[in-house]
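pasting for ref
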Amino acid sequence: MRALVKEKPEPGLWLAEQPIPEIGPDDVLVRIRKTGICGTDIHIFNWDEWARKTIPTPMTIGHEYAGEIAEVGANVKRLAVGQRVSGEGHVIGMQSRAARGGRYHLDPETRGIGVNIPGAFAEYARVPAFNIVPLPDDVDDELGAILDPLGNAVHTALAYDLVGEDVLITGAGPIGIMAGAVARHVGARHVVITDVNPKRLALAAEVADILPVDVSREDLKAVMARLGMTEGFDVALEMSGAPSAFDQLLDSVVTGGRVALLGLPAAPTLVDWNKVIFKQLTLKGIYGREMFETWHKMIAMLESGLAVRKVITHRLPAAQFLDGFEIMRRGDSGKIVLDWTA
């Protein structure tokens, strides 16, 4: 089968022939149709410090996917060959207190598909049956291929009650944009998204009814005044990992505000904890998706009108993966979906 492999510990990826994975009794074999390129995959391509410490080589990468079941293990009962599926990219152990208590997303033994174990940028992928999520007919393959990052957006946006609230999102990458769409869908009042990339801000305005602000050109306080906000944002979602964005966020939230943190800084950064303490803020770190409540909620929202398809800006055959990675590395795209059937 064709697979996108991190063959060597150096920058780049290679399209190579690999054996079709053999599954165990509790696994399924998924015939991959569509996959999404993630920021994590860009780190792996670039072979930055995080990738050098984390990624084994050689290994097939990729963790955003949709396809159909080609084979089921002997112990698998609830799934069938031919069923359309996506799946949770975090593979857990079952020994920790969190996992045994059903809080699977908090399991410290979590391993990532396409990060720690072989992934889904291939014509076939081995996935634990526990991780598989069946797709309804009205969630097609390309939406199925971006459910993983949509889940990050949903997990972050729904960390707090947003009904009637004013929401600030720092970082207009695809996940930040989708978080804005979710916030609007569930009833937030004003939703403002900030960035310094005009292309991503334009995409945000196209995808959802949210207000994009280029903070390199426009004062956020002036925007707040124009919206009639007198105290600050009730809820803030930090999606960029940029220290300057977090500083501005702290200045812009109301006293007693709530902050969800998904963006990962490239290096340790200083925080003015006086602002956090004296404003009595609540901070919550977000990683991945709640298994499997986030999956239920995001599929239900898609079925009830949540529209995020426009965040997909490029669709390419898998053989043109290099074009997709270069576009994404330049910051000239939203989500990029690769077609493994082409």
